[in-house]
Design a protein that fits this description.
By secondary structure, this protein is of the alpha/beta class. It has two domains: 211 residues, 3-Layer(aba) Sandwich (Rossmann fold); 114 residues, Methionyl-tRNA Fmet Formyltransferase, Chain A, domain 2 (Roll). 26% of the residues lie in helices and 26% in strands. It has nine helices and 17 strands. It has a seven-stranded mixed β-sheet, with helices on both faces. Strands 12, 13, 14, 15, 16 and 17 form a six-stranded antiparallel β-sheet that branches. The chain has a two-stranded antiparallel sheet with strand order 3-4. A hairpin with a 4-residue loop joins strand 16 and strand 17. The longest helix has 28 residues. It is elongated and about 70 Å long.
Length: 341
Amino acid sequence: MKIVFWGTPGFCTPIFESIINSRHQIIGIVTQPDKRRGRGKSQSFSPIKQKAIDHNIIFFTPEEIRKDIVTRKSLEKLNADLFVVVAYGQILPKEIIDLPKNGCWNIHASLLPKWRGAAPIQWSLINGDNETGVGIMKMEEGLDTGDVLMEQSIKIDLLDNAHSINEKLSNLSSSLIVKALDCIEKISSEHKLIEQLSLTKQEDLGREKSYARMIRKEDYIINWDNSATEIHRKVAGLYPNAYTYIGKKRVKLTMTIPINDLFIDYLDNKLKVFITKEYPDVENGKIIANINEIGIIVKAFNSLLLIKGAKIEGKKELFANPLIQQLKTIGNNEEISFGNS
């Protein structure tokens, strides 16, 4: 089948390559416009635009696809059999969704209808979900409300973060989309209507409906009045950008483990003695111990959190002893605490 691929971030690139290496043909790409990134604010374009250039495929970068009549007419002329949409970054209008004869299909990184919306991976981790997955959904006007063609789930490990889940789901999507395309092509080759595909309505999947809103700036700030488990989930879900402060220095936490029974299999024997310890008179955010070769222990609400890795403002990511030494330097070797500002 002739396909137009819609996508923007690195999550999409293995999926793109999987389709390119299948018997299906990508004849066009739609991706987000170039943006200024980095300290120098140099202009850069999306990973999927780079794939278009590498493979000599025509591409479009509309500012607002809803209003871009020129791009719409160009897509009509391509006469694609099918659109594949994954993490594109804009909501498609009905007149775009209805263009290809074999439908417009979305790869969504959650087990629908749970975590519809912009940030399903992040919110599944922040929420402490035990599993997530990928669904291939026939698109309609609603936000991630279409019927599901196929899906596959994976377990979320207690130490998974946004990066590891992103990789797992991207690879899973790569194999699942080719199966879906083959299934759709078979129906088409038999001259059957696309509506004759075996699709499942989301309300029949037996899951709660929830919305994964976009991540806001304030979401990245760590609140030490939360429990160690809640903080760990935020660090994992917003990896590597959840942050706190020591004085005026911003510190991004990159690797944490709550010191409790749930995480006991991940704790060094030196740390297990802290599971039953309580520090009712210690303020939340205070560093209460440095464990050589392991990391630092910080008081959270009714619990303790091990910080194994962090990136202090202006420094590279540090672990264990180098991290301990750097924090001591910042605190002038005195007792120090993390704060919200």
